[in-house]
Write a structure and sequence with these properties.
The protein is an alpha/beta fold. 41% of the residues lie in helices and 15% in strands.
Length: 107
């Protein structure tokens, strides 16, 4: 997915799990516009908790949650408000790219 985002013109920071994502977040604080995460992540923190933690410190952060399951865990009010986007896997690449560009247009 990182390579697809780069092709679309985005700058990408990749992490190996939630704990690594938090370390990256601290390093790139204020430069991140979008969190794209699976709900199921290695380690003690899942993608939902990661998103909540990062949005708490940057409320304007857009979030794309993806998974092959777990849609019922995603807050429909946040989806309706355009704060969170849901991408059920597996998904067509073109549909995924549309969701990403809708969430955060390429600058």
């Amino acid at each position: 997915i990182g390579e697809s985002l780069r092709i679309l013109g985005y700058e990408v920071v990749e992490a190996g799990g939630a704990e690594d994502a938090i370390r990256q977040w601290q390093e790139y604080r204020g430069k991140v516009d979008l969190l794209f995460t699976d709900i199921g992540l290695p380690g003690r923190m899942d993608g939902l908790r990661l998103a909540d933690r990062l949005v708490e410190s940057q409320p304007a952060l857009k979030v794309i949650l993806s998974s092959g399951y777990g849609e019922e865990l995603v807050d429909p009010a946040r989806v309706a408000a355009g704060m969170v986007y849901w991408l059920k896997l597996p998904e067509l690449r073109s549909h995924r790219d549309n969701i990403i560009v809708t969430a955060v247009p390429v600058r």
